Amino acid sequence: METEPSGLEPGLYIVAGPIGNLADLTPRGAEVLRLADVVAVEDTRVSARLLRHAGSDRPMLPYHDHSADHVRIRLIERMASESVALLSDAGTPLISDPGYKLVRDARAAGRKITTLPGPSAAIAALTLSGLPTDRFLFMGFLPNKAKARGDALDEVAALRATLVFYESGPRLSESLSAMAAHLGDRDAAVSREISKAYEETATGTLSELSARYADAPPKGEIVVIVGPPGEAPPASAEEADAALLEAMTRLPVSKAAGEVAKKLGLDRRTLYDRAMELKG
């Protein structure tokens, strides 16, 4: 049975839903959910509650990581003449949720794409953490296996940015301990149940937070915020000399001094003078 024209232009509408409190759905997002020809959702049981809150009776179609390619193809075909809203179980679609392939292929097909900004657990937790927010990296969920998890943490250990992770209660203490081992015992924050009745943010070092949750895994959606590494101590004279001697086996004195200056954060002219002394 064909639906009545929705009043929305045909295309894809990415709707950010609440991460807890239903009242956080924006009026514009609610309007799209009421008017769209179809709403693509991760789980119809979860999204049905939000659609009722928005006053929407629009049909839902499951769309998630396990959807067959033909589901995505059919949705993109429908966007030529219908409006399709994309909704995740919580927060902004595509952020650690399925959907990027749909957006990618819809753009390639020339479909109109509109995003309706709203809640995101990662951004909300950053604002609660009290840690630097001028530069951050969203890491999503760490791998389950210890080796892969350690490799992922080692890859970003030197990055001078705040790190954002999603985590589950049963894994939280172990993950915090791994972060302390691979990143150093940095300042961190654990936020859970954001915008819900039992919202909580705990702060401390990674080892302190790991101990806090070791025997009491928390419930609910969890975000871990880890502060950037501290300033590295300046290189010693012995370290600078060793670096210069090694560099001079490969490079002229001037270039060796420049390379070491960049690597150790020291003054290039001073290093050049010292390199000439060592060479002599």
TrEMBL record:
<keyword id="KW-0489">Methyltransferase</keyword>
<keyword id="KW-0963">Cytoplasm</keyword>
<dbReference type="InterPro" id="IPR000878">
    <property type="entry name" value="4pyrrol_Mease"/>
</dbReference>
<dbReference type="Pfam" id="PF23016">
    <property type="entry name" value="RsmI_C"/>
</dbReference>
<dbReference type="Pfam" id="PF00590">
    <property type="entry name" value="TP_methylase"/>
</dbReference>
<protein>
    <recommendedName>
        <fullName>Ribosomal RNA small subunit methyltransferase I</fullName>
        <ecNumber>2.1.1.198</ecNumber>
    </recommendedName>
</protein>
<dbReference type="InterPro" id="IPR035996">
    <property type="entry name" value="4pyrrol_Methylase_sf"/>
</dbReference>
<dbReference type="GO" id="GO:0008168">
    <property type="term" value="F:methyltransferase activity"/>
</dbReference>
<dbReference type="InterPro" id="IPR008189">
    <property type="entry name" value="rRNA_ssu_MeTfrase_I"/>
</dbReference>
<comment type="similarity">
    <text>Belongs to the methyltransferase superfamily. RsmI family.</text>
</comment>
<feature type="domain" description="Tetrapyrrole methylase">
    <location>
        <begin position="12"/>
        <end position="209"/>
    </location>
</feature>
<keyword id="KW-0949">S-adenosyl-L-methionine</keyword>
<comment type="function">
    <text>Catalyzes the 2'-O-methylation of the ribose of cytidine 1402 (C1402) in 16S rRNA.</text>
</comment>
<dbReference type="GO" id="GO:0032259">
    <property type="term" value="P:methylation"/>
</dbReference>
<keyword id="KW-0698">rRNA processing</keyword>
<dbReference type="InterPro" id="IPR014777">
    <property type="entry name" value="4pyrrole_Mease_sub1"/>
</dbReference>
<keyword id="KW-0808">Transferase</keyword>
<dbReference type="InterPro" id="IPR018063">
    <property type="entry name" value="SAM_MeTrfase_RsmI_CS"/>
</dbReference>
<feature type="domain" description="RsmI HTH">
    <location>
        <begin position="235"/>
        <end position="279"/>
    </location>
</feature>
<dbReference type="InterPro" id="IPR053910">
    <property type="entry name" value="RsmI_HTH"/>
</dbReference>
<dbReference type="InterPro" id="IPR014776">
    <property type="entry name" value="4pyrrole_Mease_sub2"/>
</dbReference>
